[in-house]
Amino acid sequence: MTSTAQPIRADAAITVAPVGDHGWRWRLRLAYVLLIGYAILMFVPFAWSLITSFKTLPDSVRMTVVPDPFTLQGWDYAITKLTPPMPVLFLNSAIIAGIVTVTNLVLGSLAGYAFARLRFPGRELLFLVVLATLMIPDQLRLVPVYLILNGIGLTRGLGQYVGVILVIAISGTSIFLLRQYFLSIPKDLEEAARIDGAGFFTTFVRVMLPLATPALSAVAILTFQGTWNGFFWPLILLQDQSHYTLPIGLLFFRTAGGFATNYPPLMATVVMATLPILVLYLFFQRYFVEGIAASGVKG
Amino acid sequence: MTAAIQPRTRGAPTKGRAEAVAGYLFIAVPMVMFLVLNVGSIFYALYISLWKWNLRSGPVSFMGLDNYTKAINDPVFQTAIKNSVYYAVVWVPLTMAIGLFLAVIVNQKIRGKTFFRAAFYFPAIASSAAITTLWIFIMAPDGIFNQLRGGFGLNPLFSLLGFTPAQNWIGDQATALNSIIILNAWTTSGTFMLFYLASLQSISHEVYEAAAVDGANAWQNFWRITFPLLRPGHYFVATVAVIGALQLFDQALIGGGVNGDPNNALMTMVLYLYNAAFKQFNFSFAAAIGIILFVVIFTATLVQRRLFGTAPAW
C-alpha cells in the first residue's frame, strides 16, 4: 500500500495523457471504475462459494446474495456425512503440506548453499541436473515413479503418505531460488566465521541461514501453497479415501457418489480448501508476489 | 612471499577436500532423489514402454515400438492431441494478452497499485480442484452465469450464438473445452501479469522520456516501445505457457472425468495417459504416452526458441 501515500502528481499524469487533453481527468476516473470493477470480479466467485455454503439446497441455485434461510446444514453435512469427511481431508492436506514445506526448506537451503558457495568437483554439472529436473514433465515420471514406489510398498497403507511426500520432498525450484539468494549475500561474514574456526555446517547454520530469511520465507510460502493445492501426485499415490487430501476429495465428490450437485456442502469444502491459502495470502502477499516473480526470472 | 605461500599450498588440499566433502553431503539427499525419481525415471519409462508389463511381476514380453504405433493410430489419442493443441493455441495468446494488459496497468503511476496487483493475482492462489469445482457450479445449467445473463437480458444474444437459456457449458461438447479455457485464462492471467511486471521493470524510463519529447502518445508508447522491448518477457511467458498448456489435466479430469466427457471433448494428452495407467492399468502403454508427451513439449519449446528466443530484439 505504499502508493496510496503518494497522490498522483500532475507531471506523472502527463506521461499517460498528452498535455492539453481536457478529457484526461474524466478518463482517469473511468479507468479507476473499470479497474475496481475488474478487481471485484476477481473475488466474486469465491464470495459466491462462501455464500452458497450457508444456503439450503433449493436456495443454493437462486441468485440471492443473502442465504434464506441462513443455515449451517451444508457445513454440518461436509464435516459429518461426507466420506471421507472434510476434517480428515483437511488434516491430510495439512500434514503433507507441512512436512513437504519443512523438507524443502532443510534440503533446499543445504543444497542451495552448497551450489552457491562450496567448491567441489562436478558442481556445475550437478547443478545442471537440478535445472534439468525443472524441464521433465511430471507425467513422464508417472509410470516409473508409481512402479518404483509400488515396488517398495509405498502405495499402500501409511506408506502412501511417505510415497507422496518423498516425490515432492525437494523441488529444483526451491534449490534454485535459495542458491540465487545465497549468491547475492556478500562473502565477508562467512569468511569471518571461517577465520574464527567455524566448520562449514556451523557457518551455514549460524551465519548464512539467518541472512537468508527472506528467501526461506518465500520458499516456505510457495511450497506450502503448491503442496496444499497439489493435485497430480496425491491423485496418483493416495489410493485409499481415508488418505485423500482436500483437492482429491473434491474430485471424488464431483465424480463419485451423489454429492456432485449437493452444492452447499460442496461449496463448504471448496471454502475449506481455499481458506488457509487465502489467510496466508492476506498476511504474506509480498512473498507470493516476489516468489513468483523470482522463479520467473530464471528463464 | 614464499613463506606466505608455503602454508597455503600445504594446507589447501585438506581444506579443499573438507569443503568438497561438505558440498557433497549438503547436496546428497536431493541429488539421489533427483537421479532416481527424475532423471533416472526417464530411462526407466523408456524401458517400460518397450515391454508388455505386469504390475506385480514386471516385464512380460518385448513389444518394441508397438505401444507407440498403437497410440499414434488411436483416434482417441488423436483427439487428445487435437484438444491439447487447440487449448494451447487459444489459451496461450489470450492469457498472455490479459496478463500483459494487467501488468501495463499496474505498472502505471496509479493509486492503490499494490491492491490492484494483489487483487489481479488473487485467483491464482486457489487450488485447481477448488476453482474448477466452483466454476462447474457457476456454469451449471441452473448456475449463476445462466441466471445472470438472463437477468441482464442477454439471452437473445446468446440464442443468436446457438445457446439455450439453460446451456450446460461444461457438459456440452461444443462448449466444454472453451469453458475451461476461460476459467484458466481468468486464474492464470495474474501469474503472467507478475512475470510481465518483472520484465517491464527492466525497461528504462529514458526511452519513454525520449518518446515524450517526440510527442508520442500512450498508444504509440505501448506498441512502439513497450511491446517490442518486452521481447525477452514474451519469450519467457510464452514458453512457460505452452509447456503448461500441453500438460492440461486437472481441470479436464474434474470437468469431464477420466474419459474426458462429453464425447472426448475434454480428453487431453495427459488425461489420456492417466486413463491408460489408472483405468486400463496398461502401464507400458502409459509410459509410451509419457515419452511422446515429453517429445511434443520439448519440440514445442525448441521451435519457440528458434522462432523467438535467439533472434536479436528488433
Structure in words:
The complex is a heterodimer of chains A (299) and B (314). Chain A has helices at 10-14, 24-53, 57-60, 73-81, 86-117, 123-133, 138-151, 159-168, 172-184, 188-195, 200-211, 213-229, 232-237, 246-255, 263-297. Chain A is mainly α. In chain A, helix 9 runs antiparallel to helix 12, helix 10 (188-195) packs antiparallel against helix 11 and helix 12 packs antiparallel against helix 15 (263-297). Helices cover 72% and strands 0% of the residues of chain A. Chain A has 15 helices and no strands. Chain A is globular and about 70 Å long. With 314 residues, chain B is an all-alpha fold. Helix content of chain B is 73%, strand content 3%. Chain B contains 14 helices and two strands. In chain B, strands 1-2 form a two-stranded antiparallel sheet. Chain B is globular and about 70 Å long. The N and C termini of chain B lie far apart (54 Å). Residues 1-12 of chain B have low confidence and may be disordered.
Largest sheet strand order of chain B: 1-2
Structural class of chain B: mainly alpha
Secondary-structure element string of chain B: HEEHHHHHHHHHHHHH
Instruction: Point out poorly predicted stretches of chain B.
Output: 1-12
Main sheet makeup of chain B: 2 strands, antiparallel
In short:
The complex is a heterodimer of chains A (299) and B (314). Chain A is mostly helical and 299 residues long.
Supply the key terms.
heterodimer, A: 299 residues, mainly alpha, 0% strand, disordered N terminus, B: 314 residues, two-stranded antiparallel ribbon, 14 helices, globular
Secondary-structure topology with pairs:
The complex is a heterodimer of chains A (299) and B (314).
Chain A lengths: L9 H5 L9 H30 L3 H4 L12 H9 L4 H32 L5 H11 L4 H14 L7 H10 L3 H13 L3 H8 L4 H12 L1 H17 L2 H6 L8 H10 L7 H35 L2
Chain B lengths: L1 H48 L1 E4 L3 E5 L3 H8 L1 H32 L6 H9 L6 H11 L5 H8 L3 H6 L15 H25 L4 H9 L4 H12 L1 H16 L3 H7 L12 H10 L4 H27 L5
Antiparallel strand pairs in B: 1-2
Helix pairs in contact in B: 1-14, 3-8, 3-11, 3-13, 5-12, 8-11, 11-14, 13-14
